Structure prediction request, 405 residues.
Amino acid sequence: MSYYYLYMIKFETGQFYIGSRKSKVPASEDIKYWGSPGKINKSLWDLKKEKHILFESNDISYKELTDKEKVFIGEAWKKFGKEKCINKHIGGNIDPKVLSKIAKEAYKNGTSGLNKLTPEIRKASQLKGAITKSVEFKVRDPNGKIHSAKGIYPFAKKHGLSGGNLWGLVRGKFEIYNGWTNIDVDPSTILTPLEKSLKMRDEGRGMWSEESKRKAKQTFIENNAVEYHVVSPEGKEYKGKNAYCFMKEHGLSGPFLQLLSGKVDHHKGWTRYGHPLTYELEMDKRGAFKPKSPSFELRGPDGKIYKGNSRVKFARKHGISVNTVNSVLNGHVGNSYGWTLPIPKPGKRWDNLMIKIKSPQGKIYEVENRKEFCEEYGLNYGSFLKLTQKTGIGSRKSYKGWTRA
Prediction:
């Protein structure tokens, strides 16, 4: 159901505004709507204001509502004074006094349409109008009938056409317009838009020309190019806006983009400007820099904190998989085989995601925090996580009689 109502907004300045509204809720519940201020009166809506309902009905058309709005505005002008009313027109009929005032102000400031026209432009417009009124032409209608006439716009109006488009057709700017063709053009030779497009593609014209392709490529680079500001292994600074071309030029690969985003400290000795390495890079037998990750810390199952630099070496040293190290450091899991971050990050999704679990006795529990639930019922956190994991490697259907509800 739709609700139609008229409202008045009173401002602390004594001014008021009357408007109409079609709403999905009754006027008393439509408290968030405060009218639609124009650019000129927008500042008034920032002041203290009150909203009053003047009329409401759900058995009326919007046309009837706007007609009633005109009556209310007219009566408000008489009762409170036109100068206090924000509405300066009734039903699209602008108040002549207001129009005159605006027009004079625009002419005085040189912002009216006429003031923007130079004498040359005015003369050209007058000449164009004179030509279109006196020009004699012949055109062919969609049925093949030939029409001879004088005056573009009277003919266009008579046949329901656009004067500007008809004038373009007569001058040869268009081959066809709404089925109408120039008398000098054979309708059978006119190509469809698709045929024109395919012809231009085969001939390498328009958007398929080399110049258009070059411009399109340049525009794409300007809009999507990755900026870079880096320092070479020799200490030379480079700054620009096309990382892909720069990578190709200097023999760099994909990890260079990770360097720009801050995911790695260096790539082949290149570093981000303002982020020098805090450690020396080692070279292998080939003379290439050995990959080296930033240092990190993990808390082991025994509660001790272990430091590392290479994730692979760290995993090999402590007898765990690289995936375990990566999953904890990257934040995918909070605990993997007892390994955690030294300071756990709060609000992890695996600890706060609601899940329903059925006990061996058949009781349903809604688990909000898996870790606290495991501690309360003496369950292994890692095994319980595999139970709550519905699919994927390592998931399980039950654990000590506990199942997913």
Notes: DSSP finds 15 helices and 18 strands in the chain. The longest strand covers residues 3-11.
